[in-house]
């Protein structure tokens, strides 16, 4: 009898993994995302390794699929949008349910995206003979805020998971790696950092920013929520309007719970011509928006638990300077191409826009820095798929290959 194929269980977070699989099966990228999706990269790794996979997303869209080596389903996390004790109970229940599913599947390894469940609920995986690899995409607590109360207790409970249970940890940024080090007191299993991946053709022939700087176009992409800073942008637009700066315009792409409220506020401020909310935009439309923009702004507030924030990378890949704060971990990787502002400093964000608009030499220096920082996001050796294969190899789950690399040095 031949050797049994590797069995990988993937708890993929809230994304539409069924939709992405359909596009992947057809040989194309998911058009709803600018970057290469992590689930699409996971499917690539499984195909390369000849592995069987069971993928569960916490997406609220119903659906399931069994196709060859792939079993895929959407299964929402209980009480995900509730507060207090119910939320934590839902997290533990989700972890135990995923662990049961992995055991039923006879998985060799679980790949688990952060936010799927409380980490300590996977401690039993070792007793079941299942190796575990967490993939961390968001900081564990808000930057500049120490965890307290129940969150502090959960971090303490998670400590042994990171020091005893895991077979290696994947991290999307230096900030996440530093917080892991604090939780585990420096005793966590090896950490391997990865970057979001893009195809060169996505930004090829995008062109330089328009030499016609009137209007000067400011672009925001992301969730339309108050803690993402979108109302701060409206406040800045009101400031510019009062100062007679009608040459600066804003385009916002994204959906979210505050979209209707923001549109009403824009209308009330009589700024509909200068402050445009486009809603969700697909990949071709996003490309057009980046092409029209002069700068990209990412004004995430300190109330938000931020991930890498790929829009920062996408602004740089488009050759457009970015304005953001250190709330976004992506800043560490593209600092020279960014105008850094203090978190929650609405005045500072407005001043940065004016500086880039009015100081052409400064603007050109930041644009040149964008081009210098782009290569890392096109390098497959820095991407999630290669990093996953490295961790699988280092943990003895798959044979060591020449592609194996050492853990990326932690910047603490």
Brief sketch in words of this structure:
By secondary structure, the chain is an alpha/beta fold.
Describe this structure in words.
The chain is an alpha/beta fold. Helix content is 38%, strand content 15%. It is built from 14 helices and 14 strands. The strands form two sheets. Strands 3-4-2-1-5-6-7-8 form an eight-stranded mixed sheet, sandwiched between helices. Strands 11-10-9-12-13-14 form a six-stranded parallel sheet, sandwiched between helices. β9, α7 and β10 form a beta-alpha-beta unit. α2 packs across α14 and α7 packs across α12. The radius of gyration is 22 Å and the shape is globular. The C terminus is likely disordered.
- How widely separated are the two ends? 49 Å
- Over all CA atoms, what is the radius of gyration? 22 Å
Give the biggest beta sheet.
8 strands, mixed
Order of helices and strands: EHHEEEHEEHEHEHEHEHEHEHEHEHHH
User: Can you give the mean pLDDT?
Assistant: 92
Question: Could you tell me the number of beta strands?
Answer: 14
**Spatial order of the strands forming the largest sheet:** 3-4-2-1-5-6-7-8
Q: Specify the overall morphology.
A: globular
From the helix content, strand content and strand pairing, which structural class follows?
A: alpha/beta
Fraction in beta strands: 15-25%
Percentage of residues in helical conformation: 25-40%
Which blocks of ≥5 consecutive residues have pLDDT under 50? Answer: 402-412
Query: What's the helix count?
Result: 14
